[in-house]
Amino acid sequence: MMSNHNFHFWKQIWDKKGNSDSDDLLFLDGYEHLQIEFNSKDICDKIINICNVENSDRILEVGCGAGFLSREFVNYDYTGVDYSESIIKKHSSMFPNHKIQVANAKKLPFENEEFDLVFCFGLFQYLPNYEYAGEVISEMQRVSKKTVFLGDLKSTKTRKEHFVYPKEELKSMGFE
């Protein structure tokens, strides 16, 4: 089980990125280290297809960061949240038309079933522990009326501070 130390460890990293002068979305959203082609349009197209998203659907991204994925949802009723105020400010300065706000993933400021699709991508590895992750899943389910999508889940830690949620547990909860 991870301590609050890891929660603060990651929060400091995201706040520092948000306060940087960079406008590189791969850096700002934590993908700068990847040695593979990483394309936001391909990722979002897959999410849209897997989740059967309709043009009229309301979409919530939990952990939207500086906007790496959200820039692909301009033709949708998209809302994004992130717990880093500086990342949200950076996101807002780069994409002033996006609906985004500071919010904690385990206490989303929305009504029950307010969104058709609620998704996160690359978020779970930064959660502090199993209980916290469970609360995040419950909140995502609460505000979704149709689909919850958890993307880019790690199978093993690539840093000691990472968290890995057991995929078998997700399957037992009905996730595919």
Walk me through this protein's architecture:
- This protein is an alpha/beta fold.
- Strands 3-2-1-4-5 form a 5-stranded parallel beta sheet, sandwiched between helices.
- Helix 1 packs parallel to helix 4.
- It starts with a helix and ends with a helix.
What proportion strand?
A: 15-25%
Distance between the termini: 25 Å
Radius of gyration: 15 Å
Helical proportion?
25-40%
Main sheet: strand order: 3-2-1-4-5
- SSE string, helices as H and strands as E: HHHEEHEEHEH
Find the count of extended strands (DSSP E, 2+ residues): 5
- The number of distinct helices, counting runs of at least 4 residues, comes to 6
Topology (SSEs and partners):
Elements: H1 4-19, H2 25-28, H3 40-50, E1 58-62, E2 77-82, H4 85-94, E3 99-102, E4 115-121, H5 130-143, E5 144-151, H6 167-172
Helix pairs in contact: 1-4
In short:
This protein is an alpha/beta fold.
